[in-house]
Amino acid sequence: MVTSSRAGLVDTIEHVKRAVVGVGTYASIRGVQAHYRGTGFVVADGRHVVTNAHVLPSELNSERNEYIAVFVGVKGQVRRAEKVVVDAIHDLALLKIGGSSLSFLSLGNPSQVREGEGVAFTGFPIGPVLGLYPVTHRGIISAITPVATAGRASQDLNPQRIQQLRRQPFKVFQLDATAYPGNSGSPVYDPDTGRVLGVVNKVFVKGSKENVLKHPSGITYAIPANYVKALLGRAGLKP
Whole-angstrom Cα distance, residue 188 to residue 196? Predict the structure, then answer.
């Protein structure tokens, strides 16, 4: 568990990376047994993991005994995981893992986050290529912005954007640090306390805000952690 004592980023990373895990699938009957899909982080009682909903597979291959897996540590110890709650609107998912309790992260108060604040996020960019060595990026909250924008013309609209515009658009954090494929689901946290303020999102938000760009920008977005708190509440867990 990361406490609220102000240790500074160097010490905070040592705590955070113990709670950051890989998320994917594992099949006992296939050539490549493990398939990495994104990042997650341990919360609550040390047996639950938060990630992006889009990181999870749409279906599993029962013929290959495939299941959702959480990969722990540099050696990628495999933990079987089950979906507990999925929040499709905010692209979040809560998993429960087997085995002993792991180090976990506490949630901060995203309503107090202000533009210009420094943050960090830790995850596994390009995971299978670089290995499950946690990588940390640092930046600032460059904007607090609606999840969807209207676009300049009708051809800029896609089904996801239309759905977001029909709903009450919620706010997301825009970061000036670049996240890479594999960083989806990484915790965005206060560099001094390690408390989670948001969850990196590489697909869901960009599809709503940046589909008009032929060459997507290096902008990174994060889903505020108040939606993670709600997710834990639906599962009967304390943040």
Answer: 6
**Number of Cα atoms under 13 Å in the Cβ half of residue 147:** 25
List, for residues 107-145, the tens digit of each pLDDT value: 999 999 999 999 999 999 877 666 788 999 999 999 999
Q: Determine the pLDDT at residue 51.
A: 98
Nearest to 191 by CA among 113, 98, 103: 113
Residue labelled with tokens 């692209």 = 91
Q: What is the 3-state secondary structure (H, E, C) of the chain?
A: CCCCCCCCHHHHHHHHHHHEEEEEEEECCCCCCEEEEEEEEEECCCCEEEEEHHHCCCCCCHHHCEEEEEEECCCCEEEEEEEEEEECCCCEEEEEECCCCCCCCCECCHHHCCCCCEEEEEECCCHHHHCCCCEEEEEEEEEEEECCCCCCCHHHCCHHHHHHHHCCCCEEEEECCCCCCCCCCCEEECCCCCCEEEEEECCHHHHHHCCCCCCCCCCEEEEECHHHHHHHHHCCCCC
pLDDT digits (tens, 9 = 90+) for 65-88: 899 999 998 888 999 999 999 999
Determine contact, residues 28/219, Cβ cutoff 8 Å: no
Query: How many residues can be counted in the chain?
Result: 239
**Cβ atoms of 70 and 25 closer than 8 Å:** no
Which of 162, 165, 178, 184 has its CA nearest to residue 219? 178
As given in the structure block, the two tokens for residue 52 are 């992006």
